[in-house]
Write a structure and sequence with these properties.
This protein is an alpha/beta fold. It has two domains: 146 residues, Immunoglobulin-like; 358 residues, Glycosidases (TIM Barrel, Alpha-Beta Barrel), CATH 3.20.20. Helices cover 24% and strands 26% of the residues. It has eleven helices and 26 strands. It has an eight-stranded parallel beta barrel with strand order 2-5-8-9-10-11-12-13, surrounded by six helices. Strands 16-20-21-26-23-24 form a six-stranded antiparallel beta sheet, covered by helices on one side. A four-stranded mixed beta sheet has the order 17-1-22-25, with no helix packed on it. Strand 3 and strand 4 form a beta hairpin. Helix 10 packs parallel to helix 11. The chain binds alpha-L-arabinofuranose. The site of alpha-L-arabinofuranose has 11 residues, from loops.
Amino acid sequence: MNIIKHSLAVLGLIAAPAFAASQVSISIDASKPGPVINKNVYGQFAEHLGTGVYNGLWVGTKSDIPNTRGWRNDVVGALKALHVPLVRWPGGCFADTYHWRDGVGPQDKRPSNVNGGSVEEINAVGTHEFFDLIDMLGADAYINGNVGTGSVQEMADWVEYMTSDGGSPLARLRARNGHEKPFKVAYFGIGNELWGCGGNLKPDYYANLYSNYEAFLRAPEKSRPKMIASGGSGFDTAWTDVLSKELKGRTVGISVHQYTIAGATWDTKGKDLGFKEGEWISTLANTLKMDQLIKDHAAVLDKHDPEKKIGLMIDEWGTWYDDAGARSALFQQNSLRDALVAALNFHIFHDHAERVPMTTIAQMVNVLQAMILTDKEKMILTPTYYTFQMYVPFQDARSLPLAIKDNTSYTLGATTIPGVSASAALARDGKVYLALVNTDPRNAVDVAVDVAGAKVNAAAGKVLTSAAMDAHNTFQNPQVIKPAAISARAAGGKLSIKVPAKAVMVVALEK
Ligand code: AHR
């Protein structure tokens, strides 16, 4: 009985004595749908790094782990439930030293080489295998080219190999390698982190390089990939300034990377698990800086591109914790805190839907803030996975104006952040969805919801929460944290939803 009472209290369905719930008012205007939240905002990044591709996604056809043409059935099946719209591949810094020809042709004839200085790359996964994965997922491809150690010719050849529809020697080579029809490349990134692992360049120099590369990336008009320029690091808007001025009309977006750490510096990023409340609030406070980052870049873009033709592509984001002797490079556990990080960022991306048409979280499997973790034949779904799943209705939905009144605040020491974060949208299924985050790890909150332009009598959906801030699934116990169903009915013409402490909630509002 006590266990049942505890679970209900955690889910906010009954009042728990320790939780003095405050009342927050949210009003949504369903009669004024705003910009579309591009489904590509829910994109993902899969890099040849650690076990991000090999073992995590790809095991090869001879593996005992059930697979389809080498791709793990369990992982691909789980990813399908997320409706992954877009996958960025093969890096990251890996892309800066990747030579695509090593990854085509008969697998047993492909060379093994060393990428990133020390890691063996067997090249079993190359262009054809990647597109096989993309097909299985029903996603679009975002290929990142090599400026760091490549050449204009090599990149031009790759684009021609993937996109030309016959009549060219590279199209014939592609056909001989098993794919007669061109591949569909939605986006093509010209380089990665040129300010760092891509070559320590300056923005003016890269702007010239970009022009040179882009001019020779030829593809049939109807299947030409949208070209993306590689921008600055985090809050550095100097690159955005130069690139948006110099590359107008020749790029659809400028990529920016922004990671969330718990600590104050990159040498003290903080732990993935077993952290104190101080690291809970610092992580959430740091991740909320994404809003200011987008505003800073958007202000620069507005100067050179008021028509909003250049998107801010946040193609690496998520948490990055200290390496705790990880089982493979950049492998980290993923807890309830990561779920809140994902949800808070989604709300920020929704708010900037017109300037942010695409993001890819780092990364899909076994690396940084992953959806899925694997250990040999075992697989677990992370709290971040469940958050992506709960937010599927927001893909290609129209954002709705939303105002929060009497919001709570959550304070620890010198840090204060808003208690409730919310986002609403009119989804493609015709329903209004409301997403809520309660950042306070101790206190539940009552939210009164008012929808102008629609009478709402009930809400139903899912909530993700747990007793521990670092609640996480393990290979021994994979069901520690997962979403639970939640519903609420209006009383006296008022819809009130109780959001438990430290929770992510997504509900459909019903008449
Ligand atoms: O996502 C991990 C690495 O972080 C990527 O390879 C690089 O682009 C970034 O610095």
